[in-house]
Amino acid sequence: PGEWTILHDAERGKTADHVQVAVTLDPRTLTPRARIPLFGGATASAVLPDGVVVFYGRRYARLASSRLEGLEGWPVLAAVGDGAATWIVGLHNRRLLARRLEGESAGDDEAVAVTTADVDWLQATVSEAGPTIAWHEQGTTLLHFARRVNGVWAPWDDLDVGTAQRWATVQLGSRQLVISHVREDRSWRAVLLRVACCKACRLPPPPARWAFGDTMILGRYLTGIAAAPAGDRLVLAVTRTSSVQLTSVPLDTLIP
Length: 256
Prior knowledge:
The protein is built from no helices and 23 strands. The chain is an all-beta fold. The strands form 6 sheets. Strands 8, 9, 10, 11 and 12 form a 5-stranded antiparallel β-sheet that branches. Strands 4-5-6-7 form a 4-stranded antiparallel β-sheet, with no helix packed on it. Strands 13-14-15-16 form a 4-stranded antiparallel β-sheet, with no helix packed on it.
């Protein structure tokens, strides 16, 4: 609650390797507090009550820790904390699997879905409605979702991202939002993001597009999008080749 953490790839020069880092920010002023290098090869992260955990396939470590711990089973490709435990998500033989970690104990693997093509994007979110897993399969414009309800993973509404190159999903109660960016929407005056909401929640949809004033001249290409609720606002982060920009919208209206 007293700190925001952004995990991203950093690059030094055109020929340099990508370096994964975490930047902690003061949520009131958005000024950086610390820049923490990661081990490299990070595949997922989760926020727990006592800090951030970063996963590296079959290993994990607390943020800023020099010690890696091992995990049994498949590599972790997505993770999310629900306040009491951590849900980890991975793939094995085209099956999407989830497992709940609580302290030193781990639950059994739970079957989420069977994929029909290679998965090139995977994200886990959570709210009081339960954990939700989102994934994208190559060759389609659909994002697929599954939500755990009454102890069982069930399909949720698919959402079409069309020609978007970057997207993120965020869970707000029963509502599932997808925030995406289409290259053709680029503008010199604003960052334009498209917003889609699931039909299953039966809530009024937010505006289909959000526009945020943009003062960047160089490095306008968006390399990533992230979103998370913080207090009474939804915080958005977009990364460029040389910068990270932050903004937010009120949760009660979802109108910039």
